[in-house]
Amino acid sequence: MTSHLPQFQLSVKILIAGIYAFVAVTSIPAITSLSPSSAFAQTTNEARAADTSPITIEAAEFLEWNQNEGTYIAKGKAFVRQSETSIKAGHIIARYNTSGETRNINHVIATGEVTYVEGESIAKGDKLDYDLTASFYVLTGKNASVEGPRGLMTATESIIYNSAEVANRKVTATGKARYKNNDGRTVFGDKLIAYIADDGTLKTIDAYENTKVISTNGTEATADKLTYVASTALANLDGNVEIIDNENIMRGDKAKIDFDKEISRIISNPGGKRVSGTLTP
Q1: What is the pTM of this model?
Q2: d(CA 148, CA 42)
Q3: Distance of alpha carbon 152 from alpha carbon 268, whole angstroms
Q4: Which of 1, 44, 51, 151 has the smallest number of CB atoms closer than 10 Å to its CB?
Q5: Burial level of 8, CB count in 10 A (0-12/13-18/19+)?
Q6: Are 230 and 244 contacting, i.e. CB atoms less than 8 angstroms apart?
Q7: Closest C-alpha among 68, 62, 52 to residue 13
Q8: Could you tell me which residues are beta bridge partners of residue 80?
Q9: Handedness of CA 13, 133, 208, 111 (dihedral sign)
Q10: Is 46 helix (H, G, I), strand (E, B) or coil?
Q11: Torsion 198-200-203-207 (CA) sign
Q12: 76-91 per-position pLDDT tens digit
């Protein structure tokens, strides 16, 4: 999974360009930069540095700056862009601390067909709720997704991204979750928890309930729970394991699969059921 996503910081001057009949384009004084750290794309320290380029804000209905409440609001096909970073949604609210010396944005909520783009990374959902201070966001929706050059994560309920630990970012997908890595391997589960390295590469995925992993050659393995380690291409499966390779089937309590070497080992628990297999010549 490559890396997709936000760490908005907003610090730049924005110039009020005016409100037009159908599209309002504006810039609002000194907010920080939209400069996310991707969850599924490779990023560098330079890329994560605060962007000081201008921010453009557009809306079809209205733009509002409430200095008492510390909010910027854009409604109606709202769009915010800075360099290669942008948010598109029906409604966008950005909040800052009114008691601070600067108007650094600390919370962003976008609703209605949300699309967040940062470089080659794209996140989509019905709602994006991002706490910049905690480096934590929640993307919700029946078709929530986070995609980048190194992988794609989808879910029918939510995707939570936590970048508090830069070298060990945590992405949690809930609801018929699926992760497809750029090597072609795919992991399924009612819940997936993935850990991402600083350079955007996948480290591990833990899958829970109705889990399945599919290799590049089509071999399928299902279990109650599984853990996939990307660096070694090894998967550990636990509970009601079944491995299917064309017409060959193996069943047991546990299994270890080496996808690179194409070796599958079925293991029984002490005192448990015997392992079994149906092999077709």
Answers
A1: 0.79
A2: 9
A3: 33
A4: 44
A5: buried
A6: no
A7: 52
A8: 57, 87
A9: negative
A10: helix
A11: positive
A12: 999 988 788 889 999 9
How many Å apart are CA 58 and CA 27, to the nearest integer?
9
Residue where the block lists tokens 């029946």:
142
CB 199 within 8 A of CB 42: yes
The amino acid at 5: L
Dist CA 107 CA 99 (whole Å): 15
Q: Are 23 and 59 in contact (CB under 8 A)?
A: yes
> Rounded CA gap, 215 and 5, in Å?
26
12 compared with 267, residue with greater pLDDT? 267
Residue 126 and residue 113: Cα distance in Å, rounded? 5
Distances (CA, A) of 188 to 154, 178, 205, 224: 10, 5, 10, 11
Fold of 11-158: lipopolysaccharide transport protein A fold (2.60.450)
Reported for 209-212, long-range contacts at CB under 8 A and 24+ positions apart, including other chains, are: 211/187, 211/237, 212/187, 212/188
CB 37 within 8 A of CB 7: yes
CA distance linking residue 268 with residue 65, whole number of Å: 64
The reported pLDDT for the residue numbered 115 is 96
- Specify the residue for token string 């609801």: 175
Domain ranges of the chain: 11-158
What does the pLDDT look like over 196-239, one tens digit per residue? 888 778 899 999 999 999 988 888 999 999 999 988 989 999 99
Residue 60 tokens, joined:
């079809």
CB 11 within 8 A of CB 32: yes
Residue that has been written with the tokens 């089937």 in this structure: 249
List, in sequence order, every residue forming a beta bridge with 254; answer none if it has no partner.
Answer: 238, 267
Residue with the bigger pLDDT between 200 and 271: it is: 200
Residues paired with 66 in a beta bridge: 71
**What is the distance in angstroms between the CA of the first residue and the CA of the last residue of the chain?**
37
